[in-house]
Amino acid sequence: MIQVEDKRRCCGCEACRQVCPKGCIRMVRDEEGFDYPIVDVDRCIECHKCERVCPFMKLDAPREPQAVYAACATDERLREASSSGGLFTLLAEDTLRRGGVVFGARFDETWSVCHDYTETIEGLAPFRESKYLQSRIGDSYRQAEQFLKEGRPVLFTGTPCQIKGLVHYLGRGYDNLTTVDVVCHGVPSPMVWQRYLTTLRAKQGEIAGITFRDKSVSGWRRYNFVAQMTVHSSGGNVRQFYGDNIYMRGFLHDLYLRPSCYACMAKGGRSHSDLTLGDYWGVERTCPDLDRALDEDKGTSVVMIHSERGQSLLEGMPCRYQETNYASALAGNPAIEYTAAEPPKRQLFFAQLDAEPLDSLIARLTVIPLHKRLWRQLHHRAHRVKMRLRRLARD
Ligand SMILES: Cc1cc2nc3c(=O)[nH]c(=O)nc-3n(C[C@H](O)[C@H](O)[C@H](O)COP(=O)(O)OP(=O)(O)OC[C@H]3O[C@@H](n4cnc5c(N)ncnc54)[C@H](O)[C@@H]3O)c2cc1C
Ligand code: SF4
Ligand code: SF4
Ligand code: SF4
After folding, report:
1. Most exposed: 105, 224, 305, 318, by fewest CB within 10 Å?
2. pLDDT value at position 387?
């Protein structure tokens, strides 16, 4: 039976729980806020299915994509509403048009994130945009398997380890399945996120909406974290450049990622997805013509193709794309392959979490030198002015 002895070797995909024929595995949250499987040994029949589906039981070598593209939706509003170039929605709409089902990550009623599926175009909106915390996979693998067996086209999206978990859970290929993973920096603790929301509510009121990647004011390259709040005495919405938001700051300093994210076994083409989507940072250098023709700083995706199915899907999309190469994509976006190193201050962070207010703790452990802060503020202001001038010129 499955037993997690090293937390770096469990990404929380729940493949083991979903496959167990006796239903005797449950996910239990640890003191850092991540879920791990625990087996009820009295009910276990030692069938070993849970071990066989665990993505850590078969580690693959990294593999380079068959082809790499810079791409974005031709629909500008869709680009603006998506984290990068809007490719997820295009792929999803194609699946739905063929009578299929789309799986993705959405906020739940507590503003945590869970996996779910939709069969409608309207149902895609909650999946759009990156939510920077771990999504609970729930029974999504089982549900996807059911749809696949019924012959429905299925598009399953998630982090590379979630896709690898699905592939292991299914245990066989399906012609009607398309898998898409995202370039993945890592997933922060859902518990830390909830604590952040508690501090936000205490200062600002009740939450009505969260956007991790708002492009409407500062564009794609300098995106904002936005929390829409209901009316409150000190109220008003929160809009912060991502580097100034305390939760994002701790995330980008790798302070509270899941332990498996410091030893990732799925990124770099090891998930067996058909396609990988991410931000094409540096597209202005790699594809200056594409960038100039399109750029209102609304976002461009890097699309990495790992299968023939992936290639044929991209070719049918209402998007503009240009072939590039893996080296240039990797140069702008090392997270495609490289795994975050566990910072020495991570242990201190969790040890102090109950003893110190969250914002001051994160601020203290992620101090940025004054000259870097000033340079960043200057850079940020210059970017805003540039955006404003561009808009004025366009209008
Ligand atoms: C936790 C996380 C870390 C990321 N780190 C990087 C990075 O370091 N570099 C980079 O280039 N790109 C990163 N991305 C991917 C990037 O932010 C975009 O999601 C990607 O470019 C797709 O954008 P899009 O415009 O095509 O579609 P969007 O509409 O933005 O697509 C959203 C897609 O992401 C999925 N998704 C959203 N939140 C989650 C979640 N919490 N867990 C699993 N799936 C989720 C949705 O199901 C949907 O498939 C990350 C995404 C996530 C979720
Ligand atoms: S060995 Fe079989 S019965 Fe026991 S926990 Fe694993 S899947 Fe369940
Ligand atoms: S990685 Fe997934 S399958 Fe393996 S132990 Fe963790 S939750 Fe279970
Ligand atoms: S970094 Fe790796 S282990 Fe962590 S969420 Fe991303 S794919 Fe999973």
Report:
1. 318
2. 56
Residues (pLDDT < 70) of the chain are 231-235, 291-293, 295, 369, 372-373, 376-377, 379-395
The per-residue pLDDT for 237 is 82
Residue type, 257: L
Question: Strands across the sheet with 238-241, in order?
Answer: 207-214, 224-229, 238-241
Which-ligand-closest: CA of 58?
Answer: 3
Amino acid 234 reads: S
Nearest ligand to the C-alpha of residue 304? Answer: 1
Q: Which of 208, 242, 195, 224 is nearest to 107 (CA)?
A: 208
Question: Does any ligand 1 atom lie closer than 6 A to the CB of residue 157?
Answer: yes
Both structure tokens of 156: 């399953």
Rg (alpha carbons) of the chain, rounded to whole number: 21
pLDDT at 229: 85
pLDDT of the residue at 230: 80
Domain 7-57 CATH (choose: 3.30.70.20, 3.40.30.10, 3.30.2110.10, 3.40.50.1170): 3.30.70.20
pLDDT of residue 235: 56
Identify the bridge partners of residue 157 per DSSP, sorted by sequence position. 180
Residue 78 has a pLDDT of 94
- Confidence (pLDDT) at 60: 85
> Which of 28, 40, 42, 49, when mutated, tests ligand 2's pocket best, judged by the most ligand atoms within 8 Å of its CB?
49
Strands (E), 120-173: 135-136, 154-158
Distance 59 CA to ligand 3 centre (A): 13
Output the CA 56–ligand 3 centroid distance in Å.
Answer: 7
Instruction: List the domain boundaries for the chain.
Output: 7-57, 60-386
Could you tell me the distance, in angstroms and rounded to a whole number, from the CA of residue 44 to the centre of ligand 2? 5
How does DSSP classify residue 257?
B
pLDDT for 81: 93
The rounded Å distance from CA 31 to ligand 1 centre is: 26
- Measured CA to CA, the distance from residue 25 to residue 50 in angstroms comes to 9
Q: Is 85 in the pocket of ligand 3 (CB under 6 A)?
A: no
Ligand closest to the CA atom of residue 103: 1
Query: Which of 252, 304, 300 is closest to 276 using CA atoms?
Result: 304
- Pick the closest to residue 137 from 153, 121, 154, 161 (CA basis): 161
